[in-house]
Write a structure and sequence with these properties.
By secondary structure, the chain is an alpha/beta fold. Helix content is 40%, strand content 20%. The chain contains 14 helices and 13 strands. The strands form 3 sheets. The chain has a 6-stranded mixed beta sheet, sandwiched between helices. A 4-stranded antiparallel beta sheet has the order 11-10-12-13. The two termini are 15 Å apart.
Amino acid sequence: MGLRCGIVGLPNVGKSTLFNALTMTAAAEIANYPFSTIEPNVGRVTVPDERLERVTRLAGSPKIVPTWLEFVDIAGLVKGASRGEGLGNKFLSHIREIDAIIHVLRCFASSEVSHVEGSVDPVRDAELVDTELLLADLESLERRIDPLTKKARGGDKEAKDTLGLVERVLGLLREGKPARRAQRSPEEEAPFRQLQLLTARPVLYLCNVAEEDAATGNTETARVAEMAESQGAGSLAVSAAIEAEIARLDTDARSEFLSELGLEETGLARVIFAAYRLLDLITFFTAGPKEARAWTTKRGTTASRAGGMIHSDFERGFITAETISYDDYIGLSGEQGAKEAGRMRQEGRDYRVQDGDVILFRFNVSQSAARKRA
């Protein structure tokens, strides 16, 4: 499972500069005018995880395959996007295709870079974009009411249940609250996702700050953090200028540069970890004679479903998941040591995979038992 994050925001807030730095490419055009990014540029980066390197060494795997995250640089939004203004229709359609929104907000002043609204106010900018998404969701749900009502009156139970959900979410939207704040039962999760609501996406507000504010933030980032907390969203301060410089440095120079600025990690690492927290994701590992690999999944994923991420046969013919916790795998020098210490567990299909688990799946297909290391 790869995580797909859309980088959005008003024109000239540093979206494309940040995209280029985070993906270490020059795929996105950078210009001091709106709509310099007409089609979404896509960049894929590996997720840093020292645990995978340690697992690989102990397993003696010749190949290491990390999990990945995809950034999509989406054209800047302007007022009226929900009515098709500017590149509104394209902007909104691209957001429907992502897992999480990284909303870049300008939190620095500059006489060299114009602001589409004429002044720097990240909370106002956030509200402008959020309002356009909310209006688009309102229109989308209001169009569903009549068809669902007719079906519900005809005795369609699924339509009746969906109608109740839609009306509940509409109530929130009309109060100016995002759809992701809607209370819903586990049974309603699937129909809720099928509504394809823009404001249902988790949001990370990424404050683009001047270099001197990268480590500590400023008054504007504090305002954004307060707003994000009230919305159940995340926030993070990053300097696009610093990230652009980091992208040009080798590993040793990068560490020294970060240390001089009072930073422990690159913006990329902090964005990735914040996105994982936002989406409640975990990582499990597989390791064998061919490769060691990291897999990303939602917290609470069952062992059979996790196996299905690797190959459909793993889920279809699931027998058991031989599981070792990461701490035991490292502390006992790998699979054999964990076995000898009695720390390898036989878990069933309903076992909830834990972050860091090292798993060996057993499955049975076409009457013949098979043992598979991914």
